[in-house]
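Lecture notes, continued. The same structure-token format from the folding unit now serves as the input rather than the output. Read the line below as a description of shape only.
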């Protein structure tokens, strides 16, 4: 918990917590967490995608690797637990097991970019590790050579991640922990309406081609689409109080546990945007799917191990938020543990967790690793 506080002071913005991919703040964070990894007895390196990796080497010949971790990047104006708590729980776990002879290599990973703030493409760090970056990703990213972070999937035995719930269910049920069953699929779309800028005082309302009014209609349509949909960014040009907006760019984030339902909602929203543009004399200048991630079920066998470690009566919950576990599940069995957070608040400085809940999470993760060790001994 003290380390979360200390890490939460490292930011690229003076008055709020922000750490984006490959920023100086991220590199400072990697250096600090790397020092804690070394204290835990781990050999530390940073791969070509700036993922921070601490490794406890097994003496077993031909041993595979169990990974535990989360991400160290943040959204803008973030809280200090979303992502880093999972990494620092991994470090504490490694310290606890440093003298245990495991039949697999144990790695603690701090992924470099789960949030996707800088390039609007999520899971950059974990996708680079699995060789899942697209050609467009590589062309867009200014830092070159990150595809060299790729590792063969056959070396991974399992992936384990702890994360704050980012929702209010556990608090409402008075439960400290939950086992995650699945992670919702996600589509990120960039949208651009082009209209006609004009004088705010001399252009009659009926003759306007106001791009912002069209964007506003789409935003309200997204609110009623029937799945989780969010417009989190909106840029208006020219951006003057006395000028009719001639250009609006916005982001659309659509999520659902059903990939078919999510894709149908995206298609319906595009048809809606085209109708709005036609009726208002606008042009739908851009409708680009920036990233699309399918829904992922957590591995049943690993989830059962986690359930045993947490104990009876612990709820099982789906995750509406995205996590690196959604990517790592494509390479090996993956399981996730939720930790209760106050008020369900996340992506905000008011993020808060209880020390006793974090202690229970650490105990549960330890039991999982020891059961995996018994199974593979």
């Amino acid at each position: 918990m003290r380390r979360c506080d200390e890490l939460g002071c490292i930011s690229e913005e003076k008055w709020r917590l922000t750490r984006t991919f490959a920023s100086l703040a991220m590199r400072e964070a990697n250096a600090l967490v790397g020092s804690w990894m070394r204290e835990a007895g781990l050999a530390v390196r940073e791969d070509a995608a700036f993922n921070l990796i601490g490794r406890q080497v097994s003496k077993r010949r031909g041993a595979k690797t169990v990974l535990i971790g989360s991400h160290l990047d943040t959204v803008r104006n973030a809280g200090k637990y979303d992502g880093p708590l999972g990494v620092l729980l991994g470090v504490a776990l490694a310290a606890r097991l440093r003298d245990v002879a495991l039949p697999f290599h144990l790695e603690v990973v701090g992924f470099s970019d789960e949030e996707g703030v800088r390039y609007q493409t999520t899971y950059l760090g974990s996708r680079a590790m699995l060789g899942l970056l697209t050609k467009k990703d590589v062309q867009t990213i200014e830092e070159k050579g990150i595809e060299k972070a790729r590792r063969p999937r056959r070396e991974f035995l399992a992936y384990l991640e702890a994360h704050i719930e980012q929702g209010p269910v556990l608090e409402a049920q008075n439960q400290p922990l939950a086992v995650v069953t699945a992670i919702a699929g996600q589509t990120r779309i960039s949208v651009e309406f082009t209209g006609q800028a004009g004088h705010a005082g001399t252009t009659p309302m009926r003759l306007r081609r106001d791009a912002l009014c069209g964007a506003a209609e789409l935003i309200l349509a997204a609110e009623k689409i029937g799945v989780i949909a969010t417009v989190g960014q909106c840029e208006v040009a020219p951006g003057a109080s006395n000028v009719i907006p001639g250009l609006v760019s916005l982001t659309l984030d659509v999520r659902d546990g059903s990939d078919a339902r999510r894709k149908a909602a995206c298609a319906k929203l595009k048809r809606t945007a085209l109708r709005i543009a036609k009726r208002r004399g606008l042009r739908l200048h851009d409708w680009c799917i920036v990233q699309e991630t399918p829904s992922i079920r957590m591995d049943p066998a690993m989830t059962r191990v986690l359930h045993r470690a947490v104990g009876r009566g612990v709820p099982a919950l789906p995750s509406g938020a995205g996590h690196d576990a959604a990517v790592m599940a494509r390479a090996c069995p993956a399981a996730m543990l939720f930790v209760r957070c106050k008020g369900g608040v996340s992506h905000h400085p008011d993020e808060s967790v209880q020390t006793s809940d974090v202690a229970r999470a650490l105990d549960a993760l330890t039991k999982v690793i020891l059961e995996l060790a018994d199974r593979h001994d």
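Point for the exam: The chain has a mean pLDDT of 96.
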